[in-house]
Amino acid sequence: MTAPAVLPPLSAGADRILRLFALTALFCVLVAAVLTLSQPQRDSFWRNLWFSECIGLWAAFCGALVHQLPWVRRRGPRAAVLIALAVGAPLGYVLGYTTAYAVLGEPVHIAGVADARLAAIGATLLAAGFVSYLSWLRSRLRSEATARASAQQLAAESELRMLRAQLDPHMLFNTLANLRALVDEDPASARQMIDRLITYLRAALAASRSEHATLQAEFTQLAAYLDIMALRLGARLRYTLELPEALQGWPVPAMLLQPLVENALRHGIEPKIGGGSVCVSARRSEQGLEIEVSDSGLGLPPEPLPPSEADASYGLVYVRERLRARYGQRASLHLLRGQPSGTRAIVRIAA
């Protein structure tokens, strides 16, 4: 049995045009009713409706077409509406009458001073003005929505820059403090830490110049950061990075993962006497991409933290804001208890 054919979905532009003509057709029904009630001795309702629809739809079509011309739109929303009305009304009147008479097989009578003709002209102007006003109103609402979205995006980017400025110095100051101690005690380790710090700063500088990065760039920066932390913590820190080759080019917000790794070290590994391990992995899921930062440290407290304390970490706030700004509701961050210990931070991004 052959499956029934499925019509392709309408584009947003085609959908707007259909709504525009539907509103015009409804308005013309009202015009026909008014003409019939005001002059019942002249024509029937159906004849008035036929002429009204022909004139109104032609006026709407001509007005909408003129409104889309680039040189018309460059003159501003109000001027564009007036131009569309001035052109669409007379064209709609002439084309509408011509079409209506041609379909009925009657001689075309456009000129004249009969009351019916004057009423039809008024109906045409009203229909064209109504359609043009709707078009102008839609353009204005779209412009206001674009302006609001731009303002919100600027505010979000400003807030994220402030959060990033709070994140970076923490790691840098701790590393410099360790370097100061190593210079006299272990010069070889100090030189090694300086080399790794240079690698990390180079990657961090590249990330700071862009809002986006690939997973490969993120993992390269994490490797340099964890190398530095491994020199600080010694045998108390073990780490693994797992990035499949197929996901290396996947785009993500720059510096998205480091705050999660910092949290794993600061709250999980460093306070634990024996230290522990950190694993950062990326994998495909049914919905899209899943990135996990897990540790074997102290783990989450037995009782859930109040929302005010749970969100107090700049790192978690930063990651959530980055995900919200880039993906909206298509991305999320979840914190789970590890088994048998530790914490799992999971980022999910829908494709």
Give the amount of beta strand, in percent: 5-15%
Global Rg = 34 Å
Strand order of the largest sheet: 2-4-5-7-6
In sequence order, what are the helices and strands, one letter per element? HHHHHHEHEEHEEHHEE
The secondary structure category is alpha+beta
CATH topology of the largest domain: Heat Shock Protein 90
Task: Give the count of helical stretches.
Answer: 10
The biggest sheet amounts to: 5 strands, mixed
Q: Which CATH class of the largest domain is shown?
A: Alpha Beta
What would the keywords be for this entry?
10 helices, elongated, Heat Shock Protein 90, 5-stranded mixed sheet, 351 residues, disordered N terminus, two-stranded antiparallel ribbon, 2 domains, alpha+beta
Question: Would you give an account of this structure?
Answer:
- This protein is of the alpha+beta class and 351 residues long.
- It folds into two domains: 13-147, no CATH class; 186-350, Heat Shock Protein 90 (2-Layer Sandwich).
- It has helices at residues 12-38, 45-67, 70-73, 77-104, 115-185, 187-208, 215-233, 258-269, 307-310, 314-327, and strands at 212-214, 237-242, 251-253, 276-284, 288-295, 331-337, 343-350.
- The strands form two sheets. Strands 2-4-5-7-6 form a five-stranded mixed sheet, covered by helices on one side.
- A hairpin with a 3-residue loop joins strand 4 (276-284) and strand 5.
- Helix 4 (77-104) packs across helix 5.
- It is elongated and about 110 Å long.
- The two termini are 34 Å apart.
- The model is unreliable at 1-12 and 307-312 (pLDDT under 50).
